[in-house]
User: Fold Alkaline/neutral invertase from Castanea mollissima.
Amino acid sequence: MARMAPTLAQLFALLKNDEPSDDSEIGILFGTSSEILQAESPAGANELSVREAEVAEWLLDLQYKDSTVSATENESSSPEKDSDPLNKEGSKAIEKPPDYIEIYPYLDKPSGSSKNASPKSEKKSLISEKGSLESKEKQKESEEKSLISISEGGLESKEEEESLEKAWDSSEKGEAPTPKPKKSVRMKCNENVSVSVSVSEIPSMSKLMTLKSCPSVGMSLESFDQIDSSPMFRSNGAGGNGESNAMVEEAWELLKKSYVYYKGKEVGTLAAMDPSAETLNYNQVFVRDFFPSGLACLMKDPPEPEIVKNFLLKTLHLQGWEKRIDNFTLGEGVMPASFKVLLDSHRLKETLIADFGGSAIGRVAPLDSGFWWIILLRSYSKCTRDYALVELPEVQRGMKLILNLCLSDGFDTFPTLLCADGCSMIDRRMGIYGYPIEIQALFYFALRCARQMLKPERGGKELIERIDKRITALSFHIQQYYWLDFTQLNKIYRYKTEEYSHTAVNKFNVIPESIPDWVFDFMPLRGGYLIGNVSPARMDFRWFLLGNCIAILSCLATGAQATAIMDLVEERWEDLVGEMPLKIVYPALEGHDWRTVTGFDPKNTRWSYHNGGSWPVLLWLLTAACIKTGRPQIAKRAIELVEQRLSKDGWPEYYDGKTGRYIGKQARKYQTWSISGYLIAKMMIENPSNLVMISLEEDKRIANPRLTRSASFPP
Ligand code: GLC
Assistant:
């Protein structure tokens, strides 16, 4: 009898990669096409049904695109995979570097870099800024004073200038690496062409069966397992019904419109394009906002990586400048929160202006920018296999500077990173000072990405050792002390205080009376999550979506914790998703808490904006986490909700209200990351192999004791 074709669940097992398949299954995935047919059918290829052969071909396509499925599988054969230096985390970093050139700061090439740009694109590059600039000349002047202006000239090193410019020029000359042609797959529910496999046939499936499908969607993993790789489904997200296809098309158009050009080349995307609202800094390219835009360009079929490369190089260039606020100089590695391109209408010259936090409301440096930059650099390399960019001495140096900021010795007794309020996506006072999960998860993700990309030369080796130690300590700390589920909550509830010495159970001397009432009702018997913050005598029990999803993608959360987090999302769907995905934080601060924690912030009133508002951009993070944990049906359900309103409402930045029913009080319309977040979510659901660009495998070197309390059910 012919062997059954693999199901999508197996694909998840591969993407999860923490659970190596048995050898026979690996055979399916890493042989040549004919080997697959032979190996899988004892009686030969002819015994495979057409459908099975199609699926096998599709899996090969996937292998072609993603050479990084798992370490175990990796060894089994793919030469392409072996050639991917980004798979060498934990063994060797990239070797054989070109000569390292110490150069600083990075500067723009004075002229000629736009020589190949067509006048049309040149003109286009200026249009978006020109109108508003001419009419707001005065505003611009004062703005320029408060921002750090990047002007040309003042080169300290000719070599440096040439080196960075060479990279910049290569994309201009059309030398951007040609990414591997992408093959797309689309999953659809079609009972007529069901392909399934019994659990007993595939040992690695037994673990998957412990993952629960979403009951409310009424769809099992099997019914989601249909794979169609025909060209009509290679659709850049437009593989749905007519309405959703129109929405996807609109999203691509809007994304394109948000492009910001510098010297004729696209370098980023505007935060928002709302003609009806005050611009403030929404006409800038935010580093964190560009991340989903960049990913959309990388996941596109065919990919458009140039904008990502240009963005990475331009922001690196901005990092190289001395950053001063009043008389204080910021750390060398700080990346900007945002930048914009200004046109000097007299000299017809473009100038870059960057904000490192000096202009931001509350004057906080964006701790997350550097992390997003490193993670995007890896995504870019994964997509394009352009390792030359990563190996550039300037890029290596930029990474090291970011990491030096975070790995320097201090008075810390925890491996977590101490932060000011407002240093990340939640860029206003919201009581996240201390050790917020969002930053810790991004920190961990960036450390592991950098670990794959750093070269040992020029101090790299020592840094790599520090990274390794920190990765181990950080994951232990977060998995142990941030994890909360029913069992753990009960333990904390019964904590004794004033325990002295290292044998203390209540390590941070948390007073049980400080546990807020809401958390007892919120905590389901099934599920759990990483809480918002842990520091002496303080646990912030609030749920933050970004930190939890990034913890899943980076494998900061254990496999069992990741599953439990998804369980919680299902169990608390009304609270965390409601009518519009997704709550940035739950619950909102109200009354006295709102007054003391936010400082009476009128923008962050209860269930609005950062204080319990619903942010469509977060859809991509949930989708990625769902795919990684083998629960795509949860993401599909959220995407359906978004499709009911987001486009009709003009792609708002956020929604207000307990269930997210109302367009946010001060929400910008045509918010770019709401647009790109939707696109990536669609592309990942249709082609789960896209996940490899933003997901890491489990770090097998971290020998952490697995936490039994992370199981979804109490014993
Ligand atoms: C808001 C958000 C911030 C985002 C910026 C630009 O300030 O809080 O996270 O980067 O808008 O969209």
